[in-house]
Every structure is written in structure tokens, then in C-alpha cells.
């Protein structure tokens, strides 16, 4: 199906972000039609260009899987914002810009003379989103931090990991993607408000604050602490639980199943073996000997069957069950394939690769791959030419390391 119009078509975004959180915010805008112009440092570009894995295992700033994914559908312009000329060019671009997103350290934009108050004088409708570790104000404003540090300060680490070990983190870059998603939602709220009022505003997003009340248990934990002084506790995976275990080995990997008291009868019917009718197995079970007796029959029964067979069997029986997918499983998953979740994008340096597609679908204004992630400075002549810069002028700017 062809789509002639996208939800954010006609919206122009200046993307001054780097690494993960900011680029994910602007990727979501670009994927749904916004014209996102990524401003990168001349010669070096976004540091994410140097983060692996690299396509084909060849380290190269144009082959970073992270960069390619986060910057699909964007255009790249190199611009040295530390130079007076570079800042002057940015201000020219700003006049036709609806949204500016940046994730420098707090205070950097002001040091460039590009604080929101100054930019708003040039473009009163401008929406500017600043993403930083702790926000633009407060006693932590100038502190350095990493994703792991921010996760720890957001209190969720206290409840992550085994109770007899040190607190643990979560998947690398997961929390930065969450911060980028939050920044995108906030930006769009303010942008559409500006369409009504005619006046933009500044969005100040603190990654620590996003993580302090994130959906992954944190908001609930804050409420629990407020009402009863309770705090998150790490749970032991070795504790005795009702049969069957949540995670189980089968013929070709692992699968998950959730039974409990409410679904026990459906579980028994679905298994359909005489041994499962033992009344001692019915939850609640707190005797380790009974659990072991159950597992002595359950484990070989599972190992004789595949993930697909078990998943279909229990789902048809009304019992929640799912395979524990490997990356290879996920890449060939029939549900994702049928819904066209994955997209094939041919990049001039990295070649054709498969990428995750849209996180949600809109029936009339869909996600469309308009272009692969840009080469560094690929669109200098195209975009700066719109401002009136000629070939000789661009060559001089490049020689002076302005672009």
C-alpha cells in the first residue's frame, strides 16, 4: 500500500543530538515523516558512528549498527558550532525549523549563545527539547553520569538482580531508549500546543527523572514507599514455587508458562497425562519434595516437545505460554513477518541490512523508509544550497573546518 502523506510531513527538525537518547527521539520523528536534519561535528560526526557492532565486522563510522538504526530517514549536515560562522549557519536553518532537539551537557547551548531565549527571538514558534542527565537546573546539573549511574540513581537497581549478590543493571542502552521515547512524546505535546497558541516553549528533560518514575516497577515502588515505607526487594530464583516452574527446558530451547491456581484445571486438561492428576500437585504447594516429584515427570515431558509445539498446545488450552526466543527466532517470527515489522534498507556503505521497523502502526499515515541513515555530511550541498551557499563557498567552509 502506498502512502502519499505521513503524520509529521512538513515538520522540520534540527537534530543536535548524539549517542542514543536524543537520536532515538528524533528517529521517531523522522520515521513518521518529519524532515530531520542531523547536525554533526565536521570530520568526526556523532560518536555513535564509532560504536559497534559494525556491518560485516568491519569497524567504520559508516557501518555502525547502532548509528544506522537510530538515524534512518535523517539528513546529515556537518557544522562546527564552536565557530562563529557555524553558529550563523545554524541560525539561518533555524528560521524554517519547527523543532530543535539537543542533548549536550546542561549549559553548553548557552555557552554557544544558542539558549532558548535567544533562539526564540529569531523563531517565536520554535519548540526546543533539551535532554540531559539531570536537567538544566538543580544541584546535580553539571554532574557527569553514565546510563548505569542514572539507572542506579533512579532507585530501580536496588530491586534488580539476585538477593545474595550486588544490585545489577539491565540491558545496555535500554534506559536511554526509554528517555528518548519520553522526549519524543513531550516534544510532540508541546509542538501541537504551539500550533494552537502560535508560541513555542522549552522542554527540559532529565534522564534521571525519567528513570525515577519509569513504568518498569519504579512508579509503583514510589507509591508503595509513600504509603507504607516499603522498598523494592530482589527475589531469589531458587525459592520454592508452585508447579510448574515459570521457565522450562524443552527439545529446542526454553519456554515460559504461567499457571497458578486460576489456570490449574486448564493446565491439567492441556497436559492430558495421568500423572498430572495427582491432587498433591495442585497449588498452593510449599513442600519441596512435592515440587521435585512434579518436576521428575514434567521435565522429561517438556524435553520431548519443541517450543512451537508447547506454545501452540498451551495457548489453545487457555494457558499463557511463550517461547524464549533467540535473535534468530525473532528474525524469523511469523507474527512479526506477517505484520511486516522488519524492514530491509540498502545503505551505500553498509549494504542491505534488516532493521526493526515501526513501534506502532497508523493505518492512514504509516511509517515509511524514505532514506537510509546518512553518510557524514552527505546533505551539506543540498541543505546549505537551499540557504544560498554556492559550490565554491561550501569548499571554503569545508577547508576552514566549519562544515
Structure report:
With 403 residues, the protein is of the alpha/beta class. The protein has two domains: 12-220 and 337-399, Rossmann fold; 247-329, formyl-coa transferase, domain 3, CATH 3.30.1540. The protein has 16 helices and eleven strands. It has helices spanning 21-31, 65-70, 84-94, 108-111, 116-122, 147-153, 174-197, 207-212, 218-228, 264-271, 288-303, 307-316, 327-331, 334-338, 380-386, 391-399, and strands at 12-16, 35-40, 74-78, 99-102, 127-132, 202-206, 247-250, 253-257, 321-323, 342-347, 351-356. It has a six-stranded parallel sheet with strand order 3-2-1-4-5-6, sandwiched between helices. A hairpin with a 2-residue loop joins strand 7 and strand 8 (253-257). The longest helix is centred in the middle third of the chain and has 24 residues, at 174-197. The protein is elongated, with a radius of gyration of 26 Å. The protein starts with 11 loop residues before the first strand and ends with a helix.
Amino acid at each position: 500500500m502506498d502512502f502519499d502523506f505521513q503524520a509529521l510531513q512538513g515538520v522540520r527538525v534540527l537534530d543536535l543530538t548524539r549517542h542514543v537518547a536524543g537520536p532515538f527521539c528524533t528517529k521517531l520523528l523522522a520515521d513518521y515523516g518529519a524532515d530531520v536534519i542531523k547536525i554533526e561535528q565536521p570530520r568526526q560526526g556523532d560518536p555513535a558512528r564509532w560504536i559497534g557492532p559494525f556491518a560485516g565486522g568491519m569497524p567504520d563510522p559508516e557501518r555502525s549498527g547502532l548509528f544506522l538504526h537510530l538515524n534512518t530517514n535523517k539528513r546529515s549536515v556537518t557544522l562546527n558550532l564552536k565557530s562563529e560562522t557555524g553558529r550563523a549557519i545554524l541560525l539561518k536553518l533555524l528560521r524554517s525549523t519547527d523543532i530543535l532537539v539537543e542533548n549536550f551537557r546542561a549549559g553548553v547551548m548557552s555557552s554557544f549563545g544558542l539558549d532558548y531565549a535567544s533562539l526564540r527571538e529569531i523563531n517565536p514558534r520554535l519548540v526546543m527539547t533539551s535532554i540531559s542527565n539531570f536537567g538544566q537546573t538543580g544541584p546535580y546539573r553539571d554532574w557527569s553520569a553514565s546510563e548505569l549511574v542514572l539507572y542506579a540513581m533512579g532507585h530501580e537497581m536496588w530491586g534488580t538482580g539476585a538477593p545474595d549478590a550486588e544490585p545489577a543493571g539491565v540491558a545496555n542502552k535500554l534506559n536511554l531508549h526509554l528517555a528518548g521515547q519520553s522526549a519524543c512524546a513531550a516534544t510532540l505535546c508541546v509542538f501541537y500546543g504551539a500550533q494552537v497558541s502560535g508560541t513555542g516553549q522549552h522542554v527540559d528533560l532529565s534522564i534521571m527523572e525519567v528513570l525515577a518514575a519509569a513504568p518498569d516497577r519504579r512508579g509503583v515502588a514510589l507509591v508503595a514507599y509513600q504509603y507504607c515505607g516499603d522498598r523494592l526487594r530482589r527475589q531469589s530464583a531458587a525459592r520454592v514455587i508452585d508447579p510448574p516452574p515459570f521457565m522450562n527446558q524443552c527439545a529446542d530451547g526454553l519456554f515460559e508458562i504461567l499457571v497458578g491456581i486460576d489456570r490449574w484445571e486448564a493446565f491439567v486438561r492441556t497436559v492430558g497425562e495421568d500423572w498430572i492428576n495427582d491432587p498433591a500437585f495442585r497449588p498452593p504447594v510449599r513442600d519441596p519434595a512435592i515440587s521435585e516429584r512434579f518436576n521428575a515427570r514434567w521435565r522429561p515431558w517438556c524435553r520431548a516437545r519443541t517450543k512451537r509445539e508447547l506454545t501452540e498446545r498451551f495457548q489453545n488450552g487457555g494457558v499463557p505460554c511463550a517461547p524464549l526466543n533467540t535473535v534468530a527466532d525473532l528474525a524469523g517470527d511469523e507474527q512479526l513477518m506477517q505484520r511486516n515489522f522488519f524492514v530491509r534498507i540498502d545503505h551505500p556503505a553498509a549494504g542491505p541490512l534488516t532493521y526493526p521497523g515501526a513501534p506502532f502502526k497508523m493505518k492512514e499515515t504509516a511509517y515509511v523508509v524514505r532514506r537510509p541513515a546518512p553518510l557524514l555530511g552527505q546533505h551539506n550541498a543540498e541543505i546549505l544550497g537551499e540557504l544560498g551557499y554556492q559550490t565554491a563557498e561550501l569548499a571554503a567552509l569545508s577547508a576552514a573546518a566549519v562544515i
